[in-house]
Amino acid sequence: MAEQVTLPVSGMSCQHCVGKVQKSVSALPGVDKVDVSLENASVEVAYDKSSVSVSQIAEAIEDQGYEVGAAK
């Protein structure tokens, strides 16, 4: 069963930013779905917690140069 998490992300300002975040999170093992919202400054991820953790997802986003807040 897939877990779902929504992470607030600051620093995204355009569709290029959305694409970078989408690509980096989608590349993680165990990630089923990524929905990046520029309007809401958030990333919603469906993932398999036995393959990837929320901290790994946040790290992938931060590696692209964005700031991740606490999961909702």
TrEMBL record:
Keyword Membrane found: no
Source species: Planococcus chinensis
Protein's UniProt name: Copper chaperone CopZ
Top-level taxonomic group: Bacteria
Cited NCBIfam families: chaper_CopZ_Bs (NF033795), copper ion binding protein (TIGR00003)
Gene3D superfamilies xrefs: 3.30.70.100
A Pfam family: HMA
UniProt subcellular location: Cytoplasm
Keyword set includes Ribonucleoprotein: no
All copies of domain HMA, residue ranges: 3-69
Keywords for this protein: Chaperone, Copper, Cytoplasm, Metal-binding
PROSITE patterns linked: HMA_1, HMA_2
